[in-house]
Amino acid sequence: MAERRLQVTSRLGLHARAAANLVRVASKFESSLTLQRLDGSAEADAKSILSILTLAASRGTDLKIIAHGIDEQQALDAIVGLFSRDFDETEKYDVEQPSPATQELRCKGLGVSDGIVLGRVLRLQEGTRGVYRAVIAEADLERERHRFRVAVRLSRRQLEAIKARAEKELGRGHAYIFDAHLLFLEDAKLTRDVEDYIVRERANAEWAAKVVGDRLLSIYTQINDDYLRERGSDIEDVIQRLLANLTGEGPKYPNLSEDSVIVSPDLLPSTVAELNLKHVKAIATDAGGWTSHMAIIARGLGLTAVVGLRDFYQRTRTGDQILVDARRGEVILHPTASTIEQYQATAESAGPSLREDKTVESGPVETQDGVLISLRANVELPTEFQAVRDFGACGVGLFRSEFLLSRPGLMSSEEQQYGAYKALVDVAGEHGAIVRLFDVGGEVGSELKERERNPALGLRAVRFSLRNKAAMRTQVRAILRAAAAGPLSLVIPMVADVADVRRAKQVITEEVARLDAEQKQFSEVQIGAMIEVPSAVLTAETIAKEVDFFELGTNDLVQYTLAVDRGNDKVSYWFRTLHPAVLYGINRTLLAAREANIPVIVCGEMASTPAYAVLLIGLGAIDLSMTPAMIPRVRTVVSRINADEAREVALKCLQAATADDVEELVRNEFRTRWPELFPLNTLPKPPQIS
Ligand code: PEP
Ligand code: MG
Questions:
Q1: Whose CA is nearest to atom 1 of ligand 1?
Q2: Residue 45 CB–ligand 1 contact under 6 Å
């Protein structure tokens, strides 16, 4: 065994191109060659590019090379020579510059899910698919490994072609990086680990490549040298290429380190739903609004989120440090040490987040003047089921079932859905649960459909189901069967009028008859209609005669009444929940239901906001469904107000001319009537057009 000391003297350190040259030289020798940081903090196999890069050896780093084998002396001479020649990077080409000195950058947005988080940026551009885990049968494991090797070969051919083109068009200097990519692909640290993972975990090749890639990348995001850390994107690039070749789709999927903050122009709700919460700490997006499904899911998962940051994404790089402060609706890129200190102090003094504010109180809550109000839970994902109990909900007022479809191909069979609905019945208990038929289209499940020019006005919700009857029948059957286990109802989303209700009910009746004929165990269910578009409000009296209950979807009601895209931050000023037109719509719906003697459950985000919940009670609502974590707060507020007083305020609001007027009225009335319940920061603020 022999060893020598080395120092990295090249300006950019031991980065990918330099490491590629080192691997090339080291691989000529039989001896094993190990590089160690002199401070003992890391060591690497000098024949593995991925291993070398994890040394994070920037300029000035002292290293030791240890050789073991028959040609150890020659190997050491060759490597020492390479170091002294700065890795033979002698070609004349434009050396990439390290990123400029990082400066603290603050951006204002809208905090839509509580919390303050310090983490590292993980950039994610949407429009691509995730990678799913499948369990591979013992007999098929060899075939899976073969599939992986084929993808490696294909990736290599592609990279060689790209390299040749780059050499021709851009010069050798730029083409060098593809040498490094090619070496990544051949690196046993990657290929062996993926194959081992396939066998050990009986996993599909895509999943194995993703997990191994994530691990490698997470090592990168922790590197202390900005320039070297950014080279993690080269590994990401190679992994994405492999995944693309495995799936044939060109996916890009998050590579997650321990404290990732997903930064994206926009995120599909389904992507948020499948994030690994062990790693992802927060979300920061350029687009989005309070009622966008992405925000709703983030709240449900207790994931800190700030949206509406406009052009923030393009200012970030994966691995940058970031502070996300949803309380102030702000993100801070490259926070200084003093900013971090300040925030840590604030986070500690702010006390527990909403998520921790649990209570065991359950059952309906009574206002001071004896009106009983039911507080139910809105649930999107089976992982949230436990929250229904934790926060003392009166059952589930809205199960957004379409999230069962967020992983294409999964959970869509009748049996799988039956399992999910049955679990829902179990958790909801005596108060029961309401399953909404798939509200596919709009923002959700758009990956299941062809892109539409105007998805919110397109083949969404009940329209999608009526056009895809097989999927609708499967869902209806699963619901009817699960209803045999306990109280379960079904609600039809986004009906435009009673004709939509009739068409949907026809399908349900047919499935009842089929289940009956098949002698399957099932139970008939109550059928409701979501009232969330103006035409349904205007014909609510007719619809009320043909359904068992209404659900008032205030999110869409605001969107469609005011013609404001609920997920578009550019028009967020015009998204005014307290617009008089919205209040008329709610009032009219409640009156129509009362007339027909059917219940109304208000399940939009309005019900989750304590001040708005009071207004809803003032308008006559007694059944509210919300993000489970908000139930304790709403419960406290409702238990301390007088429904009669709320009514007085609501009547005044109905007389107002503009959203500004209503908001001002709410601020004044609430502060005078319930000062201890509504400090100013809990009441609607005058928004500004920005
Ligand atoms: C609503 O529109 O208010 C609603 C509850 O449904 P979603 O937010 O899923 O559209
Ligand atoms: Mg809706």
A1: 553
A2: no
597 pLDDT more than 60: yes
**Which of 110-119, 253-262, 377-386, 481-490 is the least confident region?**
253-262
Q: What is the pLDDT of residue 170?
A: 55
Distance from residue 689's CA to the centre of ligand 2 (Å): 25
DSSP string across 42-69: -EEETT-HHHHHTT---TT-EEEEEEES
3-state secondary structure 404-437: HHCCCCCCCCHHHHHHHHHHHHHHHHHHCEEEEC
Average pLDDT over residues 302-308: 91
Tell which atom from ligand 1 comes closest to the C-alpha of 625: 5
Active-site position among 181, 394, 579, 603: 603
Q: Give dist(CA 79, CA 62) in Å, integer.
A: 14
CA 575 from centre of chain: 22
Mean pLDDT of the chain: 86
Backbone angles phi, psi at 200, to 5 degrees: -65, -45
Distance in angstroms (rounded) separating the CA atoms of residues 562 and 446? 23
Question: How far is it, in rounded angstroms, from Cα 286 to Cα 569?
Answer: 8
Least confident range from 187-196, 313-322, 415-424, 611-620: namely: 313-322
Kindly state if the Cβ of 272 falls inside 6 Å of ligand 1.
Answer: no
pTM > 0.85: no
- In ligand 1, the atom with minimum distance to the C-alpha of 439 is 9
Among 272, 291, 627, which residue has the most ligand 1 atoms within 8 Å of its CB, making it the best to mutate? 291
**Residue 463 near ligand 1, beta carbon < 6 Å:** no
DSSP letter for each residue of 318-368:
TT-EEEEETTTTEEEES--HHHHHHHHHHHHHT-S-GGG------S-EE-T
Q: Which listed residue (181, 293, 431, 579) is catalytic?
A: 293
Active site residue 603: yes
- Three-state secondary structure readout of 526-579: EEEEEECCHHHHHCHHHHHCCCCEEEECHHHHHHHHHCCCCCCHHHHHHCCCCC
Once rounded to an integer, what is the mean pLDDT over residues 146-166?
Answer: 85
Numbers of helices and strands, H then E, in the chain: 25, 21
